[in-house]
């Protein structure tokens, strides 16, 4: 799944403080095309903050972020079209159908004749048969899948998912895993946050552990047979 190309996401010496609390203290992270990376950490570790910074929704105090080789500071809002973001809130209109939601967001992205693209993304997330149903009738898992459809509607090379597994039952979680792995093709980089080590290992190519404001990165393959390191990761995220 992982390729050897230059990073689509490059984070260097990133710092972020809220009031007197330092959340990120020199974060470095590189994610290449075709990679699925799990951002692992406890609640409050700064996972959501890092995703917001990469997406351009917040600004770092210090440090640099490059997407597709272009600095986020220089490119500004134009570069955000390279990013699809799924946050804790699905950002959907529950009184609209799936198609109506995606038509609205297609307008925001200035997509011409988006009907074909809307059908494509709804097929990808297995919601085409429910396309004319109001979102209020969807389960939590279905809403998450529709939020992913919204995030990939403009076909961005970078997909950011903030704890997408939260509140899902086992079936929905398995569907989400399959979807993430399907989307992690050679053109795209995916970064998703979680505090579940098992999902981090099985859903991704590598794990970026965020502890005390810094990141250590491991390949998932290197962790499977390393009981001592897995134990250390469990301790780091507060699971003995």
Provide a brief overview of the structure.
Helices cover 35% and strands 26% of the residues.
Overall description:
- A hairpin with a 2-residue loop joins strand 4 (62-67) and strand 5 (70-71).
- This protein has a six-stranded mixed sheet, with helices on both faces. Strands 2-1-4-5 form a four-stranded antiparallel sheet.
- The model has no long low-confidence stretch (mean pLDDT 90).
- The chain is of the alpha/beta class and 240 residues long.
- The chain is built from nine helices and ten strands.
- The radius of gyration is 18 Å and the shape is globular.
- It has a single domain, classed as P-loop containing nucleotide triphosphate hydrolases (Rossmann fold), CATH 3.40.50.
What descriptive keywords fit this protein?
240 residues; 35% helix; 4-stranded antiparallel beta sheet; alpha/beta; single chain; Rossmann fold; 6-stranded mixed beta sheet
